């Protein structure tokens, strides 16, 4: 009789012993090592919530790399190169004309820009001729507005030239 | 630090438009022809006063003139 009662209590104790490991959260499930990247232009969606490993951004406050579980932030982007390291380890590079990147708390990254193209779409000749033209205006005696616009163009073109071979 | 374009009286919108235009113009022939169409704006407006339509003007041109005036101040 006594041994029977012992067996019953052991039987009752068992479910809780088994349920404990299920409730424990492992590191692998709690920390997803992917960022959900959305890279969108007004006329095109390049990435739509795609899982990637890392994104390097040309923020106005300096170059920055974004991994999963990054601190939520909003960054203004300079015209520059965005590097996307995909899950397989392949790297994609896009030149964006400037916009904003928003890092959300759940490892979501949204990048919005006006224009964005892969590097192979740029022509080194077109960049060179535009630099010459913009320099002429920037050093000329035009209105303050024309000079300021030429300086923006120069800034974009020089960044482009550093990347396009 | 204030950006140079801001000190010159340009708006952020104008700055972005110029940067985008420059990027479009730096493309190779085929993507450039497809992209350049996006830079065009053909909005026109006219001011109506006491039931009469004033002169029809291009919005882009009027914007440019207003920006130039703001830059001189």
Automatic annotation (TrEMBL), chain A:
<dbReference type="Pfam" id="PF21334">
    <property type="entry name" value="ATPD_C_fung"/>
</dbReference>
<keyword id="KW-0139">CF(1)</keyword>
<dbReference type="GO" id="GO:0045259">
    <property type="term" value="C:proton-transporting ATP synthase complex"/>
</dbReference>
<dbReference type="Pfam" id="PF02823">
    <property type="entry name" value="ATP-synt_DE_N"/>
</dbReference>
<dbReference type="InterPro" id="IPR048938">
    <property type="entry name" value="ATPD_C_fung"/>
</dbReference>
<feature type="domain" description="F1F0-ATP synthase subunit delta C-terminal">
    <location>
        <begin position="122"/>
        <end position="162"/>
    </location>
</feature>
<keyword id="KW-0999">Mitochondrion inner membrane</keyword>
<keyword id="KW-0066">ATP synthesis</keyword>
<comment type="similarity">
    <text>Belongs to the ATPase epsilon chain family.</text>
</comment>
<dbReference type="GO" id="GO:0046933">
    <property type="term" value="F:proton-transporting ATP synthase activity, rotational mechanism"/>
</dbReference>
<dbReference type="InterPro" id="IPR020546">
    <property type="entry name" value="ATP_synth_F1_dsu/esu_N"/>
</dbReference>
<keyword id="KW-0809">Transit peptide</keyword>
<dbReference type="GO" id="GO:0005743">
    <property type="term" value="C:mitochondrial inner membrane"/>
</dbReference>
<keyword id="KW-0406">Ion transport</keyword>
<feature type="domain" description="ATP synthase F1 complex delta/epsilon subunit N-terminal">
    <location>
        <begin position="36"/>
        <end position="106"/>
    </location>
</feature>
<keyword id="KW-0472">Membrane</keyword>
<dbReference type="InterPro" id="IPR036771">
    <property type="entry name" value="ATPsynth_dsu/esu_N"/>
</dbReference>
<keyword id="KW-0496">Mitochondrion</keyword>
<dbReference type="InterPro" id="IPR001469">
    <property type="entry name" value="ATP_synth_F1_dsu/esu"/>
</dbReference>
<protein>
    <recommendedName>
        <fullName>ATP synthase subunit delta, mitochondrial</fullName>
    </recommendedName>
</protein>
<keyword id="KW-0375">Hydrogen ion transport</keyword>
<keyword id="KW-0813">Transport</keyword>
Automatic annotation (TrEMBL), chain B:
<dbReference type="Pfam" id="PF04627">
    <property type="entry name" value="ATP-synt_Eps"/>
</dbReference>
<comment type="similarity">
    <text>Belongs to the eukaryotic ATPase epsilon family.</text>
</comment>
<dbReference type="GO" id="GO:0045259">
    <property type="term" value="C:proton-transporting ATP synthase complex"/>
</dbReference>
<dbReference type="GO" id="GO:0042776">
    <property type="term" value="P:proton motive force-driven mitochondrial ATP synthesis"/>
</dbReference>
<dbReference type="InterPro" id="IPR036742">
    <property type="entry name" value="ATP_synth_F1_esu_sf_mt"/>
</dbReference>
<protein>
    <recommendedName>
        <fullName>Mitochondrial ATP synthase epsilon chain domain-containing protein</fullName>
    </recommendedName>
</protein>
<dbReference type="GO" id="GO:0046933">
    <property type="term" value="F:proton-transporting ATP synthase activity, rotational mechanism"/>
</dbReference>
<dbReference type="InterPro" id="IPR006721">
    <property type="entry name" value="ATP_synth_F1_esu_mt"/>
</dbReference>
<dbReference type="GO" id="GO:0005743">
    <property type="term" value="C:mitochondrial inner membrane"/>
</dbReference>
